[in-house]
Amino acid sequence: MTSSKLNQFLNENLEDLKSQGLYNEIDPVKGANGPIIHVNGKDLINLSSNNYLGLATDARLKNVAKQAIDSHGVGAGAVRTINGTLDLHLKLEEKLAQFKGTEAAIAYQSGFNCNMAAISAVMDKNDAILSDELNHASIIDGCRLSKAKIIRVNHSDMEDLRQKAKEAVESGLYNKIMIITDGVFSMDGDVAKLPEIVEIAEEFDLMTYVDDAHGSGVLGKGAGTVKHFGLQDKVDFQIGTLSKAIGVVGGYVAGKQNLIDWLKVRSRPFLFSTSLTPADVAASTAAIDLLMESSELQEKLWENSEYLKKGLSALGFDIGHSETPITPCIIGDEKTTQQFSKRLNEEGVYAKSIVFPTVPKGTGRVRNMPTAAHTKDMLDQALAIYEKVGKEMNLI
Ligand code: PMP
Prior knowledge:
Layout: H1 4-19, E1 29-30, E2 36-39, E3 42-46, H2 59-72, H3 87-100, E4 104-108, H4 111-122, E5 128-132, H5 137-146, E6 149-153, H6 158-171, E7 177-182, H7 194-204, E8 207-211, H8 225-228, E9 237-241, E10 251-255, H9 257-266, H10 268-272, H11 278-293, H12 296-315, E11 327-332, H13 334-347, E12 349-350, E13 353-354, E14 364-368, H14 376-392
Parallel strand pairs: 3-12, 5-6, 5-7, 7-8, 8-9
Antiparallel strand pairs: 1-2, 2-3, 4-10, 9-10, 11-14, 13-14
Helix pairs in contact: 2-11, 3-11, 4-5, 6-7, 12-14, 13-14
4'-deoxy-4'-aminopyridoxal-5'-phosphate binds at residues 110-112, 115, 136, 138, 182, 186, 211, 213-214, 241, 243, 251.
């Protein structure tokens, strides 16, 4: 029998979310997550996946994954520290270090658990973390798990960061202090001010931690935001995910050898959760090879995103201040945002609404993620639907 307290808690809170228009309905996708997806019996132009370069369905990677299953099986069989470190994991980590320009790298089962793992392995209750207020949820959770003092910094406000860094150092309260930021902020598409962040870190001798989930494969000729600014030697932790531009699943930290050695003995998901599957690891390694060999897919991604941004702006939509392919269409009110997304969907575009608590109240948006796999024709069709629905709802 279910506990009556649990029932009451669930029913009241679910009702509350639904009445505020904040309950997120899940749309199952039938088949692959490509530029066109099949949802609720219809083919839709997909502007909601993180598959930036179209690699999630790339034929070359599918073949590599199949071969890895044939040679290594479907599962790694154990955690990394028992006997779940296969030759394929080491190959991936070597490749990641090469890709990021660091001494070494360590792979995790997801970007989310990578942040939980890495932050809590290094920081503790005697430390402090200066964390941008728009950092990803997994960074926030990793910071909380570490028990370090979390000092929230106004978004990309370098004056605020400098002031709070100075206060934290001068207070003498903390053993270690770390600055943590997203490389590219996932809801607005703006890029962290890494040169200034690194300067502040050097001034006060602080650690730097950059989660480049949305910059890797996209900026810095593919290598990410840190490379984009030429700061490979100045950032202690380069975090990435294998689930977005790389097209597969997993997360990683790239950095100095001693950092990676420490994470291998102290980061809990590495010690206590079964390692990535052979197919994931082999496909990710092959994807990074593709990225290092050619920038063709990145060029296509940027061309498509410029095209979509120009088109939405010309129609009169507020697309914010993105500096990357992430293209928000800011509507404001939560219910209107959800209604807009629903109407786009009915007309043939899958562009998901993003509302509080993922973004602040009153800044609801439909977030568009163009990819290298979209054709001009698909983008033109999407823009025509945006125009139709935008006019119908008096948004433009
Ligand atoms: N960090 C950031 C900045 C992200 O945007 C995401 C993905 N939403 C993650 C970490 C988590 O990555 P993953 O999906 O691989 O768990």
